[in-house]
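User: Batch of two.

Assistant: Item 1 of 2:
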Amino acid sequence: MTSSPSQPRTIGILGAGRVGTAVARQAVQAGYEVKVATAKPAEEIAMIVDIITPGAQAVDAAEAAASDLVVAAVPMHKFRTLDPAALAGRTVVDTMNYWAPTDGEIAELEADPRSTSEVVQDFLRGSSVVKTLNHIGYKDLEPLARPAGAPERRALALAGDDEAARAAVGTFLDRLGFDPVDAGPLAAGRAFQPDTPIFATTHSAARMTELLSEACALTAR
């Protein structure tokens, strides 16, 4: 059974790049216990975590993977470095984007008609993958966060095949300072991948809902 508590308390961040550290800082600000890991031993990243993400804890990847929610913030071309066994039974937030000009073409993604998150879900078969946080720039994550009900609060879409996992991730997004908009199954994540009207643009929850509906209508044709 996938672990997807409706009120997650611990957040594991796999990846200490710009996205991972921005999410970590905002999660600390929101009151979560945050654990950051990379492929390196915890002691090798402890100093940089203390400096860049004060309040977060540097841990080994296995410990981060045991958190209530796990944020995958590695480059898309490295998604197979994630450990399916360690992440089995966990809710995994997929923040990754496929950037062929930067990462080079990934043959399996070029040939696969599914969304990238569906490919990730197939790899992490024992986990429940939820796509979100990929369509906001890491530089915007902290300055654009707003309390619930605040004017001009930005919405973030999320998609996943497990309803309980989506609810847990929605709670997480809300506490980070954004209005979560549930797009439904993981395949709907295609609507906010790169080169879509939603990607890297700011929308209210109402407008985000409209854009997702329009995208789903186009896909159904």
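Item 2 of 2:
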Amino acid sequence: MRDLTNNNILHIIKDDISYIQFKKLLEYPEIAHAYTVGLDNNMRTFTSKGKNNNYDNAIDKYKILCSDIGLDFERCIRASLNQTGDIRLVTSRDKLPFFSNYIQSHDGLITDVNNINLITNSSDCITFLLYDKEKGVIANVHSGWRGTYNKILETALYAMANYYGCKFRDIMIFICPSIRECHFEVDSSVFKIFKYRFGNYPDIIREKGNKWHINTVLLNKYLATDIGVREDNIYDSEICTVCNSDTINSYRAHKEKFGQNAGIIGMKGKVKCLKKN
């Protein structure tokens, strides 16, 4: 497997699991995180019809990953990724682990609770890992092109501010591997709605023949900085899943045989206990 390490990320390559980590986020020992890579690491467990035939293998991989980065697999929870643009606050009252409490109709998870580990999956869509060290709040947000169009990252940032008192300038955003402008080709229907809503932003749409390429990563950076996120608090893996489809699962490259990658983030510490009434 090729080493994907660059200025912003480290690539951890092991026999049983491989993943990337952001160098900046590793500076905070209270946070554990990873984004899986490697075609042997298919983290897909469900289809629209329920468990798929990769379920047992994926669960084993999740357990290995959690053990490797110091998180408790039994304290994980995951969103269903229905391209809704909706965000869910995860509290101490939520049942864990994720495979017995598959949160429906949410593409982003936020918590301020230690030892609740947030998971989203992707095959080309953007995974955003967010952390505000001042308030002790994390988020894991999945954004396909519909999520980007619906400004799900902005929704997550406002949720962190409104529910937990986070200040935009304190929030760090980590952009995991995803399809990039070079391969995100769309037809006229998608081009038109993006042009209508985001046409004022420079360099997000490029015409190539009778198709258009949209830079959803750049667009999300614009949306974040417009509301006060500091540009130097945005850390991009700068990895295209399609360009690196020999190493990373990609829906566009692998078609019906696609696997899924997993992004995970959690805060270590004592579990916050609920007060009894």
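The first strand starts at residue 9 and ends at 13.
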